[in-house]
Design a protein that fits this description.
Length: 446
């Protein structure tokens, strides 16, 4: 492990997080006027003695996941993994990412959320929106070093970074952490595939960083150009990494691929360990997974929006709604890290459809249904003939497929992995158009 705290027992971790939340609130009050106002509006004030208290009601009770939505967890009630101080912040309204450009516009450049003068920063980035992202002058500010270490990057590695080094922070995020780990950065940036593919072999690059699709394109191009890549490890982010792609990287190129979840606003939120059984939440943030409609904790296993509180003053980004959809992973991780794990990023909240109280994202459905080689295309039709939603899953199958057997197998996979019962039936060839939505919401809300 990179940091001793990564293996701390749960109680020590919760105490540390509660202390960091308190410090972030105190810092917001001291220097970030807009966040101080938001905190004051909902009655959250830092006590002089050092605690965080609510001005108008007793402290919130420890919250249990809301299981009323119907997702069975084997009958056992499990505590929300985000607990550890964050419940004290739950009354603070979520600050949504898509509201950030307007908020910044009202008080340029950082919307009254930065508790330090811009002149003290190391860099300022411009993300789409536009959103101005501050980078304070601090070692591994973005928290990438533990993620890169968990991915196997070590001192002396020559690392090609294929994220952008202009406007947005991804390239510099990686560079700062690689420097701390003692790795050599090759700032490749985006595009220039041939130049980078050649450099991969010429420089004996041992580590690559980028989106899964670009990293693969590079490796394949390097092979076509006759080079012999010596890459051993890759850290990917920004896109979903399929199991098939990870396996191919290992079998075809002998590369260990690991994922990290980071955003331009916050930096690292969670990262995979060698066990690759979910992404451990970084110590620098407090993460909640909430039902996007009610704002209540989604509970273990149920998808919801990732809400992040950055515990790295001076940027007072508390209860920041990322718009990303994820679910908590269950159980302990064999790697020894004790931080809770996200099962992976399932997509954007806006694309998800709520069926019988559960958010289902098309990419999540893809991962379940399209693993069956007999399935060409599918569509989930959601209707509400009575008081309850009804979901029917239509499958377009390859010629010669055993329709009854495939439908039964898909129904059981959907029940197990999406935790929804659906009627699954074969559709005639061509019935589902190529551009048809994977989830068709036919409920009439009038
Ligand atoms: Zn682990």
């Amino acid at each position: 492990m990179y940091e001793p705290g990564e293996g701390d027992p749960g109680e020590a971790r919760a105490r540390r997080q509660a202390e960091r939340i308190r410090a972030a609130v105190v810092a917001a009050y001291a220097g970030a006027p807009r966040m101080a106002e938001r905190l004051r509006e909902c009655g959250l004030v830092p006590e002089a003695a050092g605690g965080l208290s609510s001005a108008c009601s007793p402290p919130a009770p420890r919250l249990l996941p809301d299981l009323s939505a119907g997702r069975s967890l084997g009958g056992e009630m499990r505590r929300d993994p985000s607990a550890g101080g964050i419940e004290s912040l739950r009354r603070l309204p979520i600050l949504r990412k898509d509201a950030l450009p307007a908020a910044q516009g009202r008080a340029l450049p950082f919307g009254g959320l930065l508790g330090a003068p811009p002149s003290t920063l190391r860099r300022i980035y411009i993300s789409p929106g536009p959103i101005y992202d501050p980078e304070p002058r601090r070692g591994d500010y973005w928290g990438l070093a533990p993620a890169l270490h968990a991915a196997g990057f070590r001192r002396g590695d020559i690392v090609l970074v294929t994220f952008a080094f202009h406007l947005t922070p991804a390239g510099h995020m990686m560079d700062g952490a690689l420097d701390i780990l003692g790795c050599v950065t090759v700032p490749g940036g985006t595009g220039n595939t041939d130049v980078q593919a050649r450099a991969l072999a010429d420089l004996r690059v041992t580590g690559v960083i980028g989106t899964p699709s670009f990293v693969f394109a590079l490796l394949e191009r390097a092979k076509q150009l006759g080079g012999e890549p010596a890459v051993e490890v890759a850290l990917v982010s920004g896109e979903y990494l399929t199991t098939a792609l990870r396996r191919r990287a290992c079998e075809e190129f002998g590369i260990r691929v690991t994922q990290a979840y980071a955003t331009a606003d916050v930096g690292v939120i969670a990262y995979e360990c060698p066990a690759a059984r979910g992404l451990h939440v970084s110590d620098r943030v407090a993460v909640e997974v909430v039902d996007p409609e009610t704002g209540r904790p989604a509970g273990v296993g149920a998808p919801g929006e990732v809400v992040v509180s950055l515990l790295e003053p001076p940027y007072a980004l508390l209860r920041f709604g990322t718009g990303d959809l994820a679910a908590w992973e269950e159980g302990e991780c064999p790697c020894g890290r004790t931080a809770p794990r996200l099962a992976g990023i399932l997509g954007r909240v806006g694309d998800a459809v709520k069926i019988r109280g559960l958010f289902v994202h098309p990419s999540e459905a893809d991962r379940v249904v399209l693993t069956f080689p007999e399935v060409v295309r599918y569509q989930i039709a959601v209707t509400r003939p009575g008081p309850l939603d009804e979901a029917r899953l239509f499958l377009e199958l390859r010629p010669g497929a055993d329709a009854a057997a495939v439908c039964a197998a898909v129904a059981s996979a959907v029940h197990e992995r999406l935790r929804l019962r659906m009627v699954v039936e074969a559709a005639p060839a061509g019935a589902i158009g190529e551009g048809a939505p994977r989830i068709s919401d036919r409920r009439d809300w009038r």
